[in-house]
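BUG-354 | component: ligand-complex export | severity: low

The export step for iron/sulfur cluster jobs runs without errors, but we want the raw record kept on the ticket for reference. Input record follows.
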Amino acid sequence: MSERPKIFGHLMTDVIRKGTCVSCGACAAVCPVNSIELRDGTPTLVGLCVACQMCYWNCPIAVFDVTGMEEEVFGRARTEEEAAIGVHQTICAVQAKDGEILGRAQDGGAVSAILCQFLADGGDGAVVTGVEDDRPWAARPLVVSSKEEVLKGAGTKYTSSPTLVGVGSAVYEYAKEKIAVVGTPCQMRGLRKIETGDRSDARIKDAVALRIGVFCMETFAYPSFMEYLKKEGVDASIVDKFEIKSGRFIAHQEGEVVHDVKLGTVKELVRACCHTCGDFTAEFSDLSVGNVGSPDGWSTVIVRNEIGEKILKAAEKNGLVEVKPVEDGKSGLGIIRRLSKRKKKNAEKSGGEA
Ligand SMILES: Cc1cc2nc3c(=O)[nH]c(=O)nc-3n(C[C@H](O)[C@H](O)[C@H](O)COP(=O)(O)OP(=O)(O)OC[C@H]3O[C@@H](n4cnc5c(N)ncnc54)[C@H](O)[C@@H]3O)c2cc1C
Ligand code: SF4
Ligand code: SF4
Ligand code: SF4
C-alpha cells in the first residue's frame, strides 16, 4: 500500500504539537495556495489544502539529513575536525569601517556591511529582521534594498521572527530576483530545505544568492520575555540594545546599562524548541557571524564556501570592512568550538539532534 501524502496535518502531529516547531516560516513560504499563516509563531491552516505536501517536506524539523544536505550544498560532508561547527574554509574577525554601521550594529557590523556590499554588487534585496511598530522588540521580517533599510534591521532581537515568510514575500510580492537572507541557524536550515530536493521552490531557489547565518544559543518566548522585563522594571520600549555576553544578559538604554543579570536568570524564558536545537554556528549558511571568539566591537565570521569568501573579499577590497585572524587560543577558536559542542550535547540530552 502506498504511503499517505504528508500534508499539513502531519506537520501538526510530527512537529507543531510536539513543541519542536522553530517558527521559521518555511511551510508558509512554500504553500502554493497561501493557506498557512504563522499566528504568534504557530503555523496555522487558514484556507484550502490541496495536499501538495510542500509544507511537510520543506520543514527543517520534520526531516533534515545533515550529511546529505552537506553533500548537496558544500559538495562534501564535514570532517572529524569540523564536527562541532560544520563545513568551513576559514574563520576571521571582521569590523565595519563605516562609523554609522558600527554605531547601529550589534557587534562589529560585519552582517550589515556585507549586505551593503551585496546590494552594491547587484543584489536587489535582502531579508533581515526588524521589529513590529506597536510591540517593542517583537521580531519581524523586513525586505530591504538600501543601506538605510539594512540598518533598520541591524542589532540582535532575542525573539524569533518568521524570516522565511519574509523570503516568500521578497520573491512573490516584491518580485526580487537576487536576494541575501540573514537568519538564525534553524532558519538557514529551513532555507536550504526550500532550495534543495525534489520539492524545492524554484523561484525562491533561483532568487537566493547569499545566506548569512548568525550564531544562536537560544531565543526567548515573546510574552514571557515582556512579562519578565515588566516585573524587573525595565521599559522595553526604550531599551536600545539587549546583549548576551560572557554569561550575562544585559539591557542598555541611551548607552547606560539598565539591567545586568546572570544568563541563568533568564533561561526560563527560552522557547521550548531551542532546547532540542544543536546548531550554534548556522552550519548551513555561506557565512556565519557571531561575537564569541573576537574582541569587543568585532564580529567573528566563519567562511563556509566560495560564495561567502567572494563577498567578504569584495567588502574588504572596497574598504567596507577590516579583516584580521581570530586567535587560536581559549578565548578565540576554542570558545566557538566549546559552545558548539555544549549546545549539541544539551540538544541530545533533550531528545534533539546533535
Ligand atoms: C537570537 C540570537 C541569538 C544570538 N546568540 C549569540 C550567541 O550566543 N553568541 C554569539 O556569539 N552570537 C550570538 N548571536 C549573534 C550576534 O548577536 C550578532 O548577530 C552577530 O555577532 C552579528 O553582529 P553584527 O554586528 O555583525 O551584525 P549587525 O550588523 O548588527 O546585523 C545583525 C543582523 O542580524 C539580524 N537579526 C537580528 N535579530 C535576529 C533574529 N531574531 N533572527 C534572525 N536574524 C536576526 C538582523 O536583521 C541583522 O541583519 C545571536 C543572534 C541572534 C539573532
Ligand atoms: S496546500 Fe500543500 S503546502 Fe499548503 S497546507 Fe496543503 S499540503 Fe501544505
Ligand atoms: S517549516 Fe518551520 S514554521 Fe513550519 S512547521 Fe516546520 S519548523 Fe515550524
Ligand atoms: S536555538 Fe536553534 S531553534 Fe532556537 S532560535 Fe536559535 S537556531 Fe532557532
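Assignee comment: Attached the raw record above. The mean pLDDT is 96.
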